[in-house]
Write a structure and sequence with these properties.
The protein is α+β, with helices and mostly antiparallel strands. Helix content is about 50%, strand content about 10%. It contains five helices and five strands.
Length: about 210
């Protein structure tokens, strides 16, 4: 979901509040600004300079990229730490710690995404309610809602993974329950009877 929210073009959309006639709609994200007219023609323009952007856009870019990196590490660590995976053998203590590290990465991913999306949305609302703001006013787009959903899921998933993967010592490892079969019981019963000498001759079986 972070990978879907990051390239989404609708992080903020120009508002129609107070406008009687709207001939074009402007929408932006962290990378470009686009406009569409009444006949449906789209024109997009990448931001020409990174240093010329506002500080919150630069910070949001860095946080979203860091979020994708943390999420990738968290996914790999979680797959390695799962008990059903063959990686790492049957050392469940080590696998539990690796899975807990994956949970930490997911928490970092959710926190970075939440900060970036909330910071971007705070600037949109601040400009929207500022009566003296001279530029174009925007509203919150669908990309921010996807980012909020992604951050919430990542934080909940990382927290659940940390609570579920408690580090256990080797003494706490529960052995596989041994269930003796009925055949071994029959063999143990019949074994003494084989030592008893038989009184029947060879002709008794004919």
């Amino acid at each position: 979901m972070v990978g879907i929210a990051l390239p989404n073009r609708y992080w903020k959309v120009s508002t129609v509040d107070g406008n009687v006639i709207t001939t074009s709609t402007i929408y932006e994200n962290l990378w470009m600004s686009c406009a569409t007219d009444s006949i449906g023609v789209h024109n997009c323009r990448d931001f020409p300079s990174l240093l010329a952007l506002s500080g919150y856009i630069q910070a949001s870019r860095a946080l979203m990229i860091a979020s994708i990196v943390f999420g990738t590490f968290g996914l790999v660590a979680t797959l390695v730490g799962m008990q059903c995976s063959k990686i790492g053998g049957e050392n469940y203590v080590l696998k539990g710690r690796i899975a807990a590290i994956g949970g930490v990465f997911f928490l970092l991913q959710g926190i970075c995404t939440m900060i970036a999306v909330s910071w971007y949305a705070a600037n949109i609302t601040q400009q929207f309610f500022d009566q003296f703001y001279p530029g174009t006013k925007y509203e919150i787009g669908e990309g921010l809602y996807i980012g909020w959903s992604s951050a919430t899921l990542a934080i909940c998933g990382g927290g659940c993974l940390l609570f579920a993967c408690k580090a256990k010592t080797t003494e706490e490892k529960v052995p596989y329950p041994y269930q003796p079969s009925s055949r071994s019981h029959v063999f143990s019963v019949m074994a003494p009877s084989q030592s008893v000498p038989s009184n029947y001759g060879r002709n008794a079986y004919v």
